[in-house]
Amino acid sequence: MADLYKEALRVLRIESEWLEATGRLAEKTFAAAVEILAGTDGKIVICGTGKSGHVGRKIAATMTSTGSPAYFLHPSDGIHGDLGILQKNDVALVLSKSGETEEIALLLPCFMRLSIPIVAITSSEGSLLSRSADVVLPLPDMKEACPYDLAPTASTTSMMALGDALAMALLQVRNFSSEDFAKVHPGGMLGRKLLTRVSDLMVCDSLPEISESAPLADAIALMTGHRGVCFSTGAEGILNGIFVYGDLGRLMKDRANVLDLTLGDVLITEPATCYEEELAAVAVSRMEELGITSLVVIDHDSVPVGILYLHDALQAGVK
Predict the structure, then answer these.
(1) pLDDT value for 316
(2) Running DSSP on this structure, what letter comes out for residue 213?
(3) Other CB atoms closer than 10 Å to residue 59's CB: what's the count?
(4) Lowest CB count within 10 Å: 67, 102, 170, 200, which one?
């Protein structure tokens, strides 16, 4: 078993060396490649055969999900009728270690005929693909992790990494925000985390508001019906402070009789709050950090407009 682990380390070392070398080689042409890919009004058409094709599909998916519409076109499909997907304002990203595969060779004239700029990822500087491309992102001329130097391993890892690097650079160029990301990922936990606002979950009817001069017993009765929280406001409806069950428990440790107090005697005057336009996930993080289970939601004049309960947020899938 130890020998198997040594094999794993050998593969990881080789692939790491490939990535380091790929980073050095990309320095001269990476910015130019991003400029071409970002400059299109159409889509990024990504091509590759074999293992490069699998990598190309992943790159297309990553780019599309981060604000750069991309489409994977298998060269064999392209030369047998699917070239109709191409438009003159598209750009091409072509992946081929050798740069000389038959399908790629047949596809390149079609790109050139439509004046579609080509960004190439290839190891062969003198290949047909390199000569046809507007910009080349070179891969190292090194041995694969395969012990026979046959199966694409380290080369496809480097292709994948370059694709991720291009996608993230395009994300920055296009100012693609987390909100934009959420719009194209509306489903599942990610969508809930990035799309759900405090306003979507807060309770805003029959808020537990009570005067500071009210007996503490009245405040306790009120917060019992509002999941353990009540608050008080002052002039112009501005939040003065809150009182919660946790405060009551701490108070009872120090006093034999708390019912002779008013709410104003025990009010927490600088409570944690949130705004209704905040991401619910941010508000949940604040509650978890402070060890509390609710936040008063205020407007930008510090007037309470609702209550956000931790239980409601967690039940909605916001974590």
Answers:
(1) 85
(2) T
(3) 25
(4) 102
Residues 198-315: name the CATH superfamily: CBS-domain (3.10.580.10)
Task: Report CA 54 to chain centroid distance, whole Å.
Answer: 23
Cα angle for residues 300, 301, 307 (degrees, 5° grid): 70
Q: Is the pLDDT of residue 192 over 90?
A: no
Two structure tokens written together for 312: 């409601």
In terms of Cα–Cα distance, which of 185, 30, 22, 24 is closest to 93? Answer: 30
| Percent share of the chain, pLDDT over 90 | 67
Q: Where are the domains of the chain?
A: 2-176, 198-315
Select the more confidently predicted residue: 184 or 198: 198
Calculate the dihedral angle through the C-alpha atoms of 107, 111, 114, 116, rounding to the nearest 10 degrees: 160
Residue 138: partners with Cβ closer than 8 Å, 6 or more residues away? 25, 26, 29, 122, 123, 125
* Superfamily of the domain at 2-176: Glucose-6-phosphate isomerase like protein; domain 1 (3.40.50.10490)
Q: Are 120 and 151 a contacting pair, CB within 8 Å?
A: no
